What does this fold into?
Amino acid sequence: MIYLDNAATSWPKPEKVYLAADEALRRGGNPGRSGHKLSIAAGRSVEETRMLLARLFAIPRPEAIAFTLNTTDALNLALKGILKEGDHVVTSSMEHNSVARPLEALKSSGVEVTKVATSPLSGVDIQDVRASIKENTKLMVFTHVSNVTGTINPISDIGELCRERGILLLVDAAQSAGVIPIDVMEMDIDLLAFPGHKSLLGPAGTGGLYIRDGLVLNPIREGGTGSFSELLTQPEKIPDRYESGTLNAPGIAGLGAGVRFLLEQGVGTLREKESALANRLLEGISQISGITVFGPPAGRLRTGVVSLVVDGMEPTQTAAILDDAFDIAVRAGLHCAPDTHRMLGTLETGGTVRFSIGAFNTEEEIDLCLEALRSIAEEGGLGEVRE
Amino acid sequence: MNLQRYSRQTVFDEIGEAGQERLLRSRVAVIGVGAIGTVIANNLCRAGVGFVRLIDRDYVELGNLQRQVLYTEEDARQRVPKAVAACEHLREVNSEIELEPVITDVNSSNIEALISDIDLVLDGSDNLEARYLINEACFKENRPWIYAGAIVGAGMTMNIIPGETPCLRCLFSHSLPSGTGPTCSTAGVVNGITGVIASIASTEALKILIGSSDVRKTLLAIDIWSNLFDEITIEQNRDCPVCAHHEYKLLGRLSGSYTTSLCGRDSVQVVPGSKTTIDIERFAQRLKGIGTVRYSRFMLQFSGGEVEFSLFPDGRAIIDKVKDESAARSIYSEYIGL
It folds into this structure.
């Protein structure tokens, strides 16, 4: 199996991720609840992961990171915890439904939304973002990287603009955390929503939200935090305020091992490797006729997410053939980002076939994938039934 | 209770008033209310079986009316669930019995509950995957069931009674892998055979329910087009996993065929529960009479009427223009075979 669906979830994981999750599950203990040795050990492991994440994203205080179920959960907490009736929010047409749907729902509670058009090659134009600011603009929310085309948004420029104008910036790092170096201070990011199970190489069911110091959100979920139990109201203390209910301790322990692996390898090193593989794939595809690629071409700034269509074939069919005949795992369809497909012109034609490169892919795998694509483009045309 | 309406049965010595009263106290489930299931349900309701549960996941379509006797053009226009339409029509026939529609796909999680309060299960399904499941559930719950199936002009039926007869696994030890056998959609079926097989099965049902000594113990195989009428004695397989060893593998399995909605369009991918290899070219030949078929060495694309799908050599299919996974499974079962 050649796995090229890392944008959905990364696979395989570093060996230590499996071991850490297994160890945490066997060790037991509810983190931050009871005072016994097991609970303390579980709590410690969660706090270690928090510290590793803080190191990875240059976050000054680890408590500023709240663990969530996934990026969607983190984005919901950020959007619903901040936006109120009368607020204006600026976003782009390159967003995943995990941003687009909560915003659509917030519209009915009186939140105003402006979607800035994006280019598949370079993301949003900072001038367009600037032009969309209104008096009541409270927040900007942008995906760092398109999950369909690998296009990168100019987050540092947006961050600078936001700081200038006193607007909060929420970044959806679903496709960038662990791929592109992120420094929340340098990039002026107020809120960073990230997944644990993609390029941070942790298990599914993990993720988090960084919340800048001094920013208090309305929690979208109240409940037990293991602290301040005498209060009937949700505590102010972070991260407890946002972490009601038992945390996914085994998952978070695994995530810690994933982040440790990234810190050891260096996010920059992995990025270079993935870029080289993406370029190899793109250059190879450009030699095959009958394939249309969307997003930045080889050599341009992008991540290892490559979207294409084999002419005359439904994306779902191409993906099924790759899986069935060539044992190559990719994803077909809209990738939960309908606005992006509207921009690409692929909304009504079934979306694209997405190849997403991860930390463990090799040049040989990319070459096999190119052979498969060549074979599909050349021999995949459908013929009539002969008598 | 007034048995007047059942006088043709009460004056028949083999049934009599005592038999009729037993029928009125009996509970049956018909799994699948298609060509065979509608005839069985119709017969049993008219005969006064006290409780009839009708189970089907599909909606009535115009193409069903050729053989599925309970439905009307209006049902097809309204796309009424078959289980509901069948119950509504049968309530007008017999308001004195209890009818229960269940709109569901029978699977390993729900079948035991669906038959646990039932005296006899009748097979109106269209695929072997469902029948193997019925077989296991009936042996586990110690319930008799009647297998019935038909295709083209031929049909088979067998009474399967735990402790008394061999089981379906003794009859067919292995299923054909998905997509390798004919189905009614690809090969066709005449309404005479579905009616005959279902009428025989429902008569056997009456016998089983009243405890008659005339219950048939053989497999009945007939072909009313080629004029073949056979009764075959099936030996119990002493090593049968189901009726000899009481191993209920399918009941324990949490998934049979697997379906996923694919993002993008109204399409659902169906992957068969067991491994199969489909000869795309042969399959294309089989489908060409009922729609447009085009194929390559990687896949086949079919469209005929409302039905559109792509089929791949490993048996997976992408069913287009369907609203839910259950509708996709039905098309798979009908055109490719489960």
User: Anything to note?
Assistant: The longest strand of chain B covers residues 145-151. The CA atoms of residues 21 and 86 of chain B lie 24 Å apart. Chain B has 13 helices and 14 strands. The mean pLDDT of chain B is 92.
